[in-house]
Amino acid sequence: MTAAVRPRAVLATCCLSLFLVTMDVTIVNLALPAIRRDLHATMSGLQWSMDSYAIVLASFLVLAGSIADRYGRRRIFQLGLAVFTTGSLLCSFAPTIEVLVACRVLQAIGGAMLNPVAMSIIVNVFTDPKQRANAIGVWGSVHGVSMAVGPFLGGYLVQTVGWRAIFWVNVPIGLLAIVLARTFLPESRAERVRRPDLVGQALVVVGLATLTSCLIEGREAGWQSFQIIGGFAVTALALVALVAYERRRAEPLIDMRFFRSVSLTVATIVAVIAFTMFSGCLFLSSLYLQETRGLSPKHAGLCLMPIAAALILCSPLSGRLVGLGRTRLVLVTAGTMLAAGAMLLVGLDVDTPVAQMIGAFVLFGVGIGLVNPPITNAAVSGMPRAQAGVASALASTSRQVGNTLGVALSGAIVGATATSPAFASSTRPYWWLVVAGGAAIAALGFVATGGLARRSKLAIAALLDDSGSPGF
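Below the sequence we write its predicted structure tokens.
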């Protein structure tokens, strides 16, 4: 790090890009009913408007990180901001749901160039372990805040300006981030650049896109139809082929040795479960509050504000507790809170008291706020510094896989249109699924902090640290 580099400005710039990408995962939720009416979209169309973004993010995060290592992290970061900002502007003018989905794909291509690249920049600027830990803590907190702000800001913009404004808001922020990146970010490249793994990348895209398509289209096409059964078979084959191919490749897209780290494996599983629960909750709750209960977007956003408030308060608390070595307490509490919140909604109907729903949203906010920082920390824990960007990208990928599955799975379970009187009761199986997911996170908290996890950190650091640099 040269004297000209200003670490706080670098961290602020990287966190601004994270805020943009993560907020866009959740801000669209409150606009779904308005998009449905304006663009005459079906339930599957609404699901694709959410999942097209999450699929591309999940599929290309690791590849984007390796491209940045080769061609320059600042250069790819700036390109990502430009593509994301352009995609946002095009989304705001989409005349049909199909065009909106295509523009969301463009947005996500830009977004995939940001998060893993930003984490690599942070890791290389903050070389002191304590400062790096603090920077990662700030990063995790911003991730939580951006998720929390999305629904409320989306509801306000839809109510006062219209649904297209949720994309307009990205443009000035994106332009500001481009200027800040050009001014403050140092250029850096990896000392040893990995070759692109196009086969592995193709298998990731095929597997995730096919699985999502089956979940979204399964109810309409028929779960026992050749189309859906064949799609699930393709998903399974893509997964098996990915593992087999990556294990033999010298420079894989996903180094399967990473999963010898119990901490990273648990972080991956927890991220998928937690964000499946969270994205499905936002998707169903946004539709329920507006279409079933008849609330305006602004009032629906206010009802979801307890999630935002609890998330904002609990994210930094979680980061401090993780820094003090209380990861087990954090994960067990997070899983318990998520399960308790879902228990308040398992009997949801059209007349469920608002106070009961708000109580559930508070518990959801506490759970997600607590669970987010330990995901990043567990993913990079024990990894050599040179591998931190890839490990962080895997954690981010797991979050986006969860976001994808949450929308697809919740829509598949509900099936009914959001305006149907049966919509509320049709969500009940999903809330039971969330109860089980919360219990699983609590149980994984013990696995992530046990003796096996500690031993695997030492083993993975010795296995992967080619440069002799210390692990986290």
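The radius of gyration is 21 Å.
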